[in-house]
Design brief:
Layout (H helix, E strand, L loop, with lengths): L6 E4 L7 E4 L15 H50 L18 E2 L4 H10 L6 E2 L4 H7 L11 H8 L8 E2 L3 E2 L1
Length: 174
């Protein structure tokens, strides 16, 4: 097991500027046809799948608990609104934040879904696993019928691993 934390560097020049470098691991297995590249990929993907299944089960339990609390919270909010209309200083009912939906990897996702997966992940990271590099490139702008070219620039910009806000109508801010 390996863990990589955020690396902070400080420029000791004028102004004492500080910058942050985020670790990103890019990898590809390259070889001739029939050189058993898929075996290593299968082993790593199987391991990640087992971890992902465990995380999803744990998260499903936490979400079920949160959804029960959210329903209770709705009832409390209705009561709050009735009471607040009649008197001052009524305490507003609080609801815990939504629990994370942890994901380790995905095989195929739109750039919008990747943004959502990364923001719901406590670490803000996701691994994209593709059998063929050409399949990954071919997935860029798959649902736009050639009308836009936004996925390729998005992945090129992702190479520097800087945080980026994603704001969409109807989708909230991620």
């Amino acid at each position: 097991r390996a863990g990589i934390g955020v690396q902070m560097q400080q420029d000791m020049g004028d102004g004492g500027r500080v910058w942050t470098e985020y670790p990103v691991l890019w990898g590809a297995v390259v070889g001739e046809y029939s050189t058993k590249k898929g075996l290593a990929l299968d082993l790593s993907r199987d391991h990640m799948t087992q971890i992902d299944l465990r995380l999803r089960k744990e998260d499903a339990d936490a979400w079920a608990d949160w959804e029960r609390k959210a329903k209770t919270h709705e009832v409390k909010m209705a009561t709050y609104h009735r009471e607040a209309a009649q008197k001052d200083n009524v305490e507003i009912p609080q609801l815990d934040d939504k629990p994370p939906r942890r994901r380790l990897w995905t095989d195929d996702a739109t750039s919008e879904t990747l943004g959502k997966l990364m923001t719901e992940s406590p670490r803000g990271k996701i691994c994209i696993v593709k059998e063929e590099l050409a399949a990954w490139f071919g997935s860029f702008d798959a649902y736009t019928n050639g009308k836009t070219d936004k996925d390729r620039p998005l992945y090129l910009a992702a190479y520097d691993s800087k945080p980026r806000p994603i704001d969409r109508v109807g989708g909230g801010t991620y």
